[in-house]
Structure formats: structure tokens, C-alpha cells
Amino acid sequence: MLVSVLAIGGLGVMAVMGVVAAFIITGWIGQPVPVLGFEQTFDQPIDFPHTVHASLLPLDRVAADGEKMDGLGLDCTFCHRTVTTQANAGIPPVGFCATCHQVIGAADNVQINLLRDAADIIGDDGTEPVNWKRVHRLPDHVRFVHEPHIRYLTQNPSEVTGTTDGVTQGAAGVCSTCHGNVAAMQQVEQVESLKMGQCVDCHRDNGAPTDCVACHH
Ligand code: HEC
Ligand code: HEC
Ligand code: HEC
Ligand code: HEC
Ligand code: HEC
Asked: Is any ligand 2 atom within 6 A of the Cβ of residue 175?
């Protein structure tokens, strides 16, 4: 009796320790295991399709003339203007979108009308920002800066991973390394774990700093 209780108790402790160890290992090394939930996406206040704007390929979408529509192939940096110079990539304000959507898009396109309303082209609420939900968000104790990464990857194309359906030249050609094929996404989702292990592995392989204060406040 005592022996079997001890045996079961021992197994239980081992099972708990196994689970704890698995969490510590995945947290630390950050193996990209999708079932652990880093693969994430959110519905946005306006259903903004990267496909239509950023892809260069024919879309699963028919234009007014009945022909299949091609993506516009806008460069990522056309909208994410500060990605090559600052920490944040930046999301364009509605006024920027309105330069096209004042006229582009049918008068009854519900999603574009949400944008026209926010930009005060229709409706009478005045301009208001769109509260886009953040898809990629590191904890507050971590420091990330886009600028050095874009510069390094542009200069070292062999370190770029992934592919893009959009522009492949210059800065836009390197984003897939951490964000996947955004130009093919109807709705942006996080496809890389972007855990500490992934950051540190790449830093070690490319002679970038690996001391704690490089990335932690
Ligand atoms: C360079 C011009 C241009 C800019 C800038 C632009 N768009 Fe568009 N957008 C288009 C075109 C062209 C279409 C396709 C219109 C159509 O099929 O009727 C489109 C389609 C859309 C649609 C409709 C998608 C659908 O499924 O019907 C939405 C929503 C949209 N854009 C939002 C935005 C937002 C938000 C911004 C700013 C971040 C933006 N656009 C900036 C040109 C632009
Ligand atoms: C027409 C403007 C436009 C273009 C071109 C564009 N984006 Fe975006 N992007 C946006 C807007 C608006 C959002 C916020 C809404 C959303 O998440 O879909 C966004 C969101 C994102 C996000 C998610 C940000 C977060 O919350 O974590 C990533 C990553 C991204 N874009 C990468 C790219 C890449 C890579 C390209 C080029 C292949 C690109 N974008 C081209 C307008 C644009
Ligand atoms: C080395 C990896 C890496 C590369 C390369 C990279 N990003 Fe990011 N990106 C991140 C991380 C990590 C975050 C989340 C940052 C945070 O929460 O502080 C992020 C956040 C973003 C965001 C949302 C927040 C913001 O900064 O405005 C956008 C938009 C974005 N990236 C666009 C791009 C575009 C466009 C490119 C290519 C020109 C690119 N990224 C290249 C890792 C990367
Ligand atoms: C694709 C490889 C790669 C990935 C992935 C990557 N980095 Fe980097 N990172 C670099 C390189 C290379 C540099 C140095 C660039 C230079 O200045 O030459 C750098 C520089 C930095 C710097 C500036 C350090 C300084 O003080 O000069 C910070 C901060 C940083 N990375 C944080 C991160 C974080 C946080 C992540 C994970 C979310 C990450 N990086 C993912 C390659 C990478
Ligand atoms: C290249 C960037 C980078 C370096 C260098 C780095 N970290 Fe991190 N660290 C991160 C990122 C990104 C996260 C958040 C994502 C995660 O939890 O893995 C993080 C998370 C953590 C966490 C929280 C883990 C959790 O589960 O919440 C601790 C603790 C930590 N780091 C300690 C350290 C220590 C100690 C060092 C120095 C030996 C260090 N880090 C060096 C990028 C880095």
C-alpha cells in the first residue's frame, strides 16, 4: 500500500516537473510550437487586407471590369514609414489612406466607408483615429528597434528568411524574416514566435550583442 502510494506520488511529482520543465524550456528557447499559442491574429476595426495593397500577384478577387484583380504591390515602407529609421515601424493615419479612398472604392463598400467616416469624408463625426489592435507586442521589459535589423538584413541578404508576394527589393524584402508573408495575408497574423531564444540565436550567429541589457531595460 505505502509502496504504491509512494510510487503514484512520485509519478505525479515527475509529471508536474515535466510540465514545468517543458514550459521553462519552451519559454527560454522559444521553439516555434504553434499549439502553444504564439500564432495569433485579431479582427481589426476596419477589415484592412494586406493582399489588395501589398501583393504583386493576381488576387482571388474580381475587379469592376470582370477581370481578376492584381494586388497594388505598394512597398511596405510606403505605409510603414519609420521602419528604416526608428524603433517603431509606424501605422499610417486615416488621412493617409484617404488620399486614395476619397475616390477609390465603391460608394457602398462598407469597410472603406468605415475609413471614410473616420477621415470625415462621409458622416459628421469629424476625424478620429482608428484603434488598430496590436498583433505583435513584446513585454514592456524588452527593447526592440527596427532600424538596425532592416539595415543589417538589407546588407546581408543571405540572412533573410521567408518569401514575400510583394516587393522584394530593399527594406520590403527583409520583413518576412520576422513577420512571414504579410503581402499574402488577408488579416495579419504573427507567424514567428519572436521569443528570447529566437532573438538570441540570431544575435549570436550574426555578431550582435547578447548581453541582457542589450534587450532589457
Ligand atoms: C495607393 C492607393 C491606396 C492607399 C494609400 C490605400 N488604399 Fe485601400 N485600396 C486601394 C484600392 C485600389 C483598393 C481596391 C478597391 C476596390 O476593389 O474597389 C483598396 C481596397 C481597400 C479596402 C476594401 C477591401 C475589400 O475587401 O473590399 C479597404 C478596407 C481599404 N482599402 C483600406 C485601406 C486603409 C485602411 C488604408 C490606409 C492604411 C488604405 N486602404 C490605403 C488603394 C489604396
Ligand atoms: C496601404 C498601407 C500598407 C501597406 C502597403 C502595408 N501595410 Fe502593414 N499595416 C497597415 C495597416 C493599416 C496595419 C494595421 C492593421 C492591421 O494589422 O491589419 C498594418 C499592420 C501590419 C503589421 C502588424 C502590426 C502589429 O500590430 O503587430 C505588420 C507586421 C505589417 N503591417 C507588415 C507589413 C509588411 C511586411 C508590408 C509589405 C509586404 C506591409 N505591412 C504593407 C498598412 C499597410
Ligand atoms: C528582426 C525581426 C523583425 C524584422 C526584420 C521586422 N520586424 Fe516588425 N516587428 C518585430 C517585432 C519583435 C515587433 C514587436 C515590437 C514590440 O512589441 O515592441 C514588430 C512590430 C512591427 C509592427 C507593429 C508595431 C510598430 O512597430 O509599428 C509593424 C507595423 C512592423 N513590425 C512592420 C515591419 C515591416 C514593414 C518590416 C520590414 C520593413 C519589419 N517589421 C521587419 C520584428 C521585426
Ligand atoms: C535575423 C536576425 C535577428 C533577429 C531574429 C533579431 N535580431 Fe536583434 N539584431 C540583429 C543584428 C544583426 C543586430 C545588429 C545590427 C547592427 O547594428 O549591425 C541587432 C541589433 C539589435 C538591437 C540593438 C542593439 C544595440 O544596442 O546596438 C536590439 C535592441 C535588438 N537587436 C533586439 C532584438 C530583439 C528583442 C529580438 C527578438 C524579438 C531581435 N533583436 C531579433 C539580428 C537579429
Ligand atoms: C536579443 C535580445 C535578448 C537578450 C540578449 C536577452 N533577452 Fe531576455 N527576453 C527577450 C525577449 C524578446 C523576451 C520576451 C519573450 C520571451 O518571453 O521569450 C525576453 C524575456 C526574458 C525573461 C522573461 C521570461 C518569461 O517567461 O517571461 C527573462 C527573465 C529574461 N528575458 C532574462 C534575460 C537575461 C537574464 C538575459 C541575459 C543573460 C537576457 N534575457 C537576454 C530578449 C532578449
From this structure: yes
